[in-house]
């Protein structure tokens, strides 16, 4: 009986693990073949794709088309997610320190669940709040149309907050208690212990949290799409509308026939996103390995 | 304890299998085998245009009530998806708000067109603007970015904010072809969903966009073109040019169940009740026809 249930468990977990590996590989192969066909079948150069801002995938050959330059989308994604991380990272780390070191009791009892709830709110709700409250607020009080880089990164910075906070609190919690005690014994104040001992010791974990937040910001589509205005131009100010890779993909995907150049170009954009998030994962692995907390 | 756990695992596995089977059933095979002479059966999947989705859903519900052995699954996904799925034979019906001939990458010759109804489209502006009518040239100048202030077309001194649909959208294609004469629109705000376009035009001072008439609810103002209002009357008689057919495409001639559903869509049950209720114009009311090249003929 015991052996049987052991076997069953083994088979189930092995099966699940294999399924995860196989599906990852299949997805990568599928996106790659689809995405690379833009370059292979239609002879559009990688350089043109990455560094041109003209996006006319429907233009006939005799009018000089089709042109699929994604620079505006790529820059939009980078600008919006970097700004979101810039806002969110200090806030999140401060939150994590507060939860773990300053007010451990009600921080862990109240604040951490409250922040985790933020992760559970569906992104369409964030988008709708941004569309209904944030964009009009920006339009009436700051200027511009409201649909802007500003609205986009503000919404995103709230959305990535739980990711960074939870990774950071976990890291801080994993630090050996003796380090804090030792620094108190040397006469440091609580602030000095946090700033000079705990935060530097937790550095790699904090960076991991930030990179994961950045990756999440990069991949988020729906909420961002609702508040950034989706204008296919490189923004010149924080109040200009902008477009990201993800929103460009979701807006056109359903209306382009499979196998057309236009559709393939969208897959290439998907491939680009995949490569970027692979980079983020590699960075996380690298950071986690270097100077990790070994207790 | 172990037995309990095992029981749970078995239950979960069974659930999984049942769900998987149910999922397969929906996508399913279309080879309808009429059990009795008058009884229809089979599975129909209708995929495509989100503009047509509410119509297809309501009609399908009524049709299934009358023919309990027919199962119809209606999905959105966009006109491009509808046309592709129909052409590949993955769905029995592909809904589209543009002609298959107008979409590059689709082999239109193997698809059979069933025109269900007509939807008009109008330029809409923020209700606080005192604009009710624009000439065709003014409209083109506004959407190509030549005119950037409402005072140049007889309005107040207010910057124009363009709200477009994505380039692949069927509504955009129709509006560009019949309202703008094919002129390329300037970059503006782009929104995927008609509902979002309506909300932005309603909330943003100086905004102009375009919507299917089925989305008009009084919160935004529809604009006449050259003095012709986007009314049902003007569309059926061919005076107002910006409209599109709602097509249901099948690959080759449809089988019995699909054919029965498509002809049900043309009965008074649908054409006289659901179609006008949702803000579309019944195909049967049209006094003109238009082909994929845009040629208009009297019916």
From TrEMBL, chain A:
Some GO term, biological process aspect, for this entry: which one? phosphate ion transport
Q: Which GO terms describe its molecular function?
A: phosphate transmembrane transporter activity
Return the GO cellular component terms, semicolon-separated.
plasma membrane
Q: Which InterPro entries match?
A: MetI-like (IPR000515), MetI-like_sf (IPR035906), Phosphate_PstC (IPR011864), Phosphate_Transport_Permease (IPR051124)
Record keyword Zinc-finger present: no
Q: NCBIfam families this protein is in?
A: phosphate_pstC (TIGR02138)
Q: What is this protein called?
A: Phosphate transport system permease protein
Record the organism: Pelotomaculum schinkii
The root-end lineage is: Bacteria, Bacillati, Bacillota, Clostridia, Eubacteriales
The primary gene name is pstC
UniProtKB/TrEMBL annotation, chain B:
Instruction: List where in the cell it is found.
Output: Cell membrane
A Pfam family it matches: PBP_like_2
Question: PROSITE patterns, alphabetically?
Answer: PROKAR_LIPOPROTEIN
Membrane topology label: Lipid-anchor
Entry keyword set: Cell membrane, Lipoprotein, Membrane, Palmitate, Phosphate transport, Signal, Transport
Q: What is its main location?
A: membrane
Please provide, alphabetically and separated by semicolons, the GO molecular function terms listed in this UniProt record. Answer: phosphate ion binding
Record bears the keyword Signal: yes
Would you tell me the Gene Ontology cellular component terms? plasma membrane
Classification via Gene3D superfamilies = Periplasmic binding protein-like II
Q: Where is the PBP domain?
A: 34-268
Q: Where is the secretion signal located?
A: 1-22
State the InterPro entries in the record: PBP_domain (IPR024370), Phos-bd (IPR011862), Phosphate_ABC_transporter (IPR050811)
One GO BP annotation is: phosphate ion transport
Q: How does it assemble?
A: The complex is composed of two ATP-binding proteins (PstB), two transmembrane proteins (PstC and PstA) and a solute-binding protein (PstS).
**What protein family does this chain belong to?**
Belongs to the PstS family.
PANTHER family named in the record: PERIPLASMIC PHOSPHATE BINDING COMPONENT OF PHOSPHATE ABC TRANSPORTER (PTHR30570), PHOSPHATE-BINDING PROTEIN PSTS 1 (PTHR30570:SF4)
Function, please? Part of the ABC transporter complex PstSACB involved in phosphate import. Involved in the system for phosphate transport across the cytoplasmic membrane.
**Full protein name:** Phosphate-binding protein
Q: Which organism is it from?
A: Pelotomaculum schinkii
State the organism's lineage: Bacteria, Bacillati, Bacillota, Clostridia, Eubacteriales
Gene from which this protein is expressed = pstS1
